[in-house]
Amino acid sequence: MIKLGVFGVGHLGKFHLNNWKEISGVELVGFYDPDDSNAQEVTEKYQLARFLDPDTLMDACDAIDIVTPTPFHFAICEAAIKKGKHVFVEKPLAHTMEEARGLVKLAKESNIKMQVGHVERFNPAFLAVKDLELNPMFIEVHRLAQFNPRGTEVSVILDLMIHDIDIILTLVKSEVKAISASGVAVMTDTPDIANVRIEFNNGCVANLTSSRISMKRMRKMRLFQKDAYIGIDFLNKKSEIIKLKGPRDLDAFSFDLDTPHGKRTIAILNPQVPEVNAIKMELEKFRDAIVNNTPAIVSEVDGYRAMDIAHQILTKIKNASINA
After folding, report:
1. CATH number of 41's domain
2. Which CATH number covers residue 195?
3. Is the dihedral of CA 286, 290, 293, 299 positive or negative?
4. Same domain, 155 and 270
5. pLDDT tens per residue across span 149-183
6. Alpha-carbon torsion 74, 79, 83, 86, what sign?
């Protein structure tokens, strides 16, 4: 039985608590949260012990789950790793690149499992297509959200776009060649809307748009590769594939298309989307990595790579505004 403590039981932290209570092989020891009213609500609702000292909670646990605001990630992660505790930390990994580098170094030197909460890796729409032969050469992403003061301690790049950066880095098996970006701070002191172009050494290009001041919500990724288009709707949990019909597409809806190169048969596929709870699944995978002594699906290195690209984007936006 893994003894686990939760740091931060705000909006997302409560989602984590609800899921941990349903996950076998894990015993919730307690939580730490400096907000008295929030802590009282959680104590009463979950009948869970509140710890007033972070070190005391860590000492009582085998693993911890960090769902605090980003500026607090580093200090809690560092203390836990030095105590030999396994760590799940919400994205982004840390507040600064220096902190992120420090955590990667600490985790590498220790014998602990560390997982970063890039939950879209476990989105049913992505799970439906991730094992296909994906070799995108053009990627288009729109992630739009309505304004919410919660989470605005970081830019829209680190708040929203980093989800798509992480997914793209798992899909494109090539190093980043160039980044161009523009962004505007509208409601906060950091960019609230941004458009980014990432070019890879293999020729793939990704265009990303993220906004947290939109009237409607959207979380879509479109992949274009030779002979196929793959659409992933993270919000509505749907996926679609339009491709040249192959021998394994016998049951697919198809139609013929006349092209300059002759008649082509196009197949339209709707992959079966698994019914999974993404947050619960990512927490279960963290448990499995500890129990089976296997690598975390989203490691601290993955979290660092996504952060690195995100911070390069922020630098591009900052330099553009200075030179404007």
Report:
1. 3.40.50.720
2. 3.30.360.10
3. positive
4. yes
5. 766 677 899 999 999 999 999 999 999 999 999 99
6. negative
